[in-house]
Write a structure and sequence with these properties.
The chain has 842 residues and is α+β, with helices and mostly antiparallel strands. The chain is built from 19 helices and 37 strands. The strands form 8 sheets. It has a 9-stranded antiparallel sheet with strand order 18-19-20-21-29-25-24-23-27, with helices on one face. Strands 6, 9, 10, 12, 15 and 17 form a 6-stranded mixed sheet that branches. Helix 10 runs parallel beside helix 13.
Length: 842
């Protein structure tokens, strides 16, 4: 009886996945989410076909997953392209440190030539800089040995076998760099990078390289900020690929990405499911993605089928050359493999373009007939499967001497043997990450939420997840359908497509941890916008999705800022911008305050929580702090001085009309919360102040340029014809504040419709770039569905047509759909503001 029940579930799941494909979406995502849990455990496919590129961390670095299905002995690759490997001719520190001679003052002429005698130079080890990756310290400030310049020379041997025209320069520099090879300048590159890139070796470099001894000479200048330089030469080596399966479809839903393939006489469905169900905090906090493989015989004949999946060691490292250790394990009902760095530098790195290099990646499968796991040298694991359909039983894939090995060389792997398939069948595995400690919070290392009791281990969590598989599969299916239907009802089909794509990204740009008192903290990372942690003006645009589905998580985003002020660590009379640089939340690191911006954000979001929950209890907990902030806005918020706002990339601006709206509505939200708490006098006072400010705002912001359509300016009393999206007005509507006359938004919407570009409404009159989250907020001001959809359709077109294949960027150019900056950020949670309107205005 038990076997029959299991078979019935299997058939139900299988049929539902294959039948989904005819309803595949029209939207082509810029990138496809595969594993989406937090800023470190986040893997994507950046091509429409799953085999056209290696899978990548959201930062763009390869974190390779490979999948192969073997049908009657014939292998078909369905997941991942084999990453190009780079054979070092002159290594960089990313793979291996190297000896060099260097000096900080300008050397005598001819220093770059091969016959130069480097007497008086210091011997050291490259790379050079002030980052953790540097082997020799070079800094431009703060020490007696500080210097803005570094010169270094290194020797390497070249055997002449590689084709010079195929060679590449690997470089990471901060800032300007000149590179010489055997006395010939081969590169002169300004500015800086914060990652290694491969550049084709120039024609001059191809001529300069010679068989035998070569000299690479480098000059780097770092006048300010960080310092780093590393240069090497590599030969790209492409591995012969396996025949690819024919991809027949792909569908992205809120919690799942489903692919279908044809592999000879067998059809294969592969589903990546990250069950980010916000009504179950313990589930959404589990860093575990399920991958389900479902096969059926196309010709109804019996076929031998095995599925192979491997996970590169780079999922547990910041750089490809870091050495890792591999281990096998088992728990009741499960077998698993793990990989992690030998060094385990827990919370030792902070920054933006950084990947985790502590903790352990897991690959786990149910302990049942036909399932195998293994670890070792990546090529050996793959070759064994191609030949036999199994993992190697000998030591051919073993790491020599079982010693730590460079992450890019090794992998974890599993084989799921379906046996002879004539009827539909499915199997699944789990990919997980145990980060041990997730963030440092005011000098205290905090566990992830799932490990808050100090007792739960990853093997135990995997067992729980395995027992939950069927339930979560069904619940995710229902939730995905409901989200799409609710979004379509709120804003139309294109709007629903955007919300679906944004859902996992918005959550995975955060980490859920247990705070010092056991409270829920939901800490964001500013992905590719400086790496700050807990930034208020990231929380603000992200908030609608979490207000809609679980306000506890929005509180978890705001608590660090409240606690920062209330602990006395932050002493200013306005809210902080952030609490550090991810993952170190030890205090603001952003170089400049945004006083009006952050006070307004915190007041408005606290007001939104109070309205969503129907009471002012959360506001009551922080009333003293909110009062300090609202008084700041009363004094300095209406007519803001020259300062940054959340759109800091646009630069400083004084008398910002949209920022003034935020201040006015923040004051009004405080009055509304006072009313909820029974303080009628305070409520009336602050609401009156806000209304008086709104009257004055209309007078100062109204554009007075002759012959222009009526609208409100970018700044107060602006003599030029200017405009800006007044997206902050949306809270007047959503919170039912009624501070501004409705004709203000009607005038603005009418005007914005005349300013649209092919890929959206520009942010303001200064540039043609935009922020897609703010467009959706602005669109929500519209009275009619027609006008709302008129703003949304160009955003949908941007997402569908952008040539920039990265996890969704919220900052793009409206003329050509190219990314301007930012990617994989949580602010796309702001797309849900139209759906939130329905909840708050019920």
């Amino acid at each position: 009886m038990q076997k029959n029940t299991a078979f019935f579930v299997s058939i139900t799941l299988f049929v539902s996945l294959f039948s989904r494909q005819p309803l595949a979406q029209d939207l082509r995502p810029p990138a496809y989410p595969l594993i989406t849990h937090d800023p470190y455990f986040s893997v994507w496919s950046t091509t429409d076909k799953l085999t056209d590129s290696p899978t990548r961390h959201w930062t763009g670095k390869p974190q390779s997953l490979e999948g192969i299905v073997r049908v009657d002995g014939q292998a078909y690759q369905f997941l991942g392209a084999v990453p190009t490997t780079y054979e070092a001719i002159a290594s960089t520190g990313e793979t291996q440190a190297y000896p060099a001679k260097y000096m900080f003052k300008k050397p005598s002429s001819g220093w770059e030539k091969t016959d130069y005698a480097a007497t008086g130079w210091t011997s050291g080890t490259g790379p050079f800089g002030d980052t953790p990756e540097a082997k020799t310290k070079w800094t431009n400030n703060g020490s007696s040995n500080a210097s803005t310049d570094i010169y270094y020379r290194r020797e390497f041997n070249y055997d002449g076998n590689a084709d010079p025209s195929k060679l590449v320069l690997s470089i990471n520099h901060d800032d300007d760099v000149e590179v010489y090879l055997n006395g010939t300048k081969i590169l002169d590159k300004p500015d800086y990078l914060n990652e290694y890139v491969y550049l084709p070796l120039s024609a001059a470099g191809q001529k300069a390289i010679r068989k035998g001894k070569n000299v690479l000479a480098v000059h780097c200048v770092s006048p300010r900020g960080g310092s780093f330089i590393d240069v090497g030469i590599f030969n790209p080596v492409k591995t012969t690929g396996v025949t690819t399966a024919t991809q027949t479809g792909v569908t992205v839903s809120a919690t799942q990405t489903n692919y279908t393939f044809s592999a000879g006489p067998v059809n294969l469905a592969v589903t990546f499911m990250s069950p980010l169900l916000l009504d179950e905090l313990d589930v959404v906090a589990r860093p575990i993605t399920y991958v389900t493989f479902e096969v059926r015989s196309e010709d109804r004949k019996s076929h031998s089928v095995q599925v192979f999946l491997s996970e590169s060691g780079t999922l547990a490292t910041n750089t490809i050359g870091q050495e890792v250790v591999l281990k096998a394990g088992q728990a009741p009902g499960l077998i698993y493999q793990t990989v992690g760095t030998e060094a385990q530098p827990i919370l030792a790195k902070k920054g933006d373009n950084v990947r985790i290099d502590w903790g352990y990646a897991y690959l786990a499968v149910p302990q049942e007939s036909g399932n195998q796991t293994g670890n070792g040298m990546a090529p050996g694991l793959k070759q064994a499967f191609l030949k036999t359909g199994q993992l190697p039983t000998d030591n051919k894939a073993s790491v020599p001497g079982n010693k730590p090995r460079a992450a890019a060389d090794v992998a974890l792997a599993t084989v799921l043997d379906f046996g002879n398939v004539s009827k539909p069948a499915n199997k699944h595995l789990m990919l997980a990450y145990d980060d041990l400690y997730s963030v440092q919070y005011f000098k205290q290392n905090l566990r992830p939420w799932w490990r808050r009791d100090e007792k739960t281990t990853m093997p135990a969590l995997l067992q729980t997840a395995e027992k939950d598989y069927s339930r979560l599969k069904e619940k995710c299916e229902k939730f995905d359908n409901r989200l799409r239907a609710d979004a379509k009802k709120a804003g139309g089909k294109e709007y629903a497509d955007l919300c679906v794509l944004a859902y996992r990204q918005a959550i995975a740009a955060h980490k859920i941890v247990a705070g010092p008192k056991g409270e829920t903290l939901f800490l964001s990372k500013e992905n590719f916008s400086n790496g700050s942690i807990g930034t208020v003006d990231i929380t603000y645009p992200s908030a609608p999705m979490f207000l809609l589905y679980n306000p506890t998580l929005l509180k978890g985003m705001m608590e660090p800022i409240f606690q920062y002020s209330e602990s006395g660590r932050w002493k200013k009379p306005f809210a902080a911008h952030d609490v550090g640089t991810y993952p170190l939340a030890n205090g603001q690191t952003y170089g400049e305050d945004m006083p009006v911006e952050e006070c307004g954000n915190m007041l408005l979001l606290t007001g939104a929580i109070s309205r969503a929950e129907g009471n002012g209890e959360y506001a009551k907990q922080h009333w003293k702090t909110l009062t300090t902030w609202v008084e700041y806005l009363k004094k300095d918020g209406f007519d803001p001085s020259n300062q940054l706002c959340t759109d800091d990339f646009a630069g400083h601006i004084a008398r910002n009309a949209n920022l003034s709206v935020k201040a006015i509505l923040g004051i009004a939200a405080y009055g509304q919360m006072a009313a909820q708490l029974g303080d009628k006098a305070t409520a009336e006072s602050y609401l009156k102040t806000a209304r008086e400010m709104a009257v004055k705002w209309q007078q100062l912001a109204l554009d007075k340029t002759p012959a222009q359509k009526e609208h409100y300016d970018l700044t107060f009393e602006n003599q030029d014809d200017s405009w800006s999206q007044k997206y902050n007005l949306v809270w007047d509507k959503l919170l039912g504040l009624d501070i501004f006359p409705k004709e203000v938004t009607a005038i603005e919407i009418d005007y914005y419709l005349t300013k649209q570009k092919p890929y959206g409404l520009p942010l303001d009159s200064r540039k043609t770039y935009t922020k897609s989250d703010w467009i959706i907020w602005t669109a929500t001001l519209a009275k009619s569905d027609r006008d709302f959809e008129a703003f949304v359709k160009p955003v949908w077109r941007y997402v569908n047509e952008t040539p920039t294949r990265v996890p969704l960027s919220d900052w793009h150019e409206t003329t050509n759909a190219k990314q301007v900056g930012f990617q994989a950020r949580s602010v796309v949670g702001g797309y849900f503001i139209k759906m939130l309107e329905g909840k708050l205005n019920k």
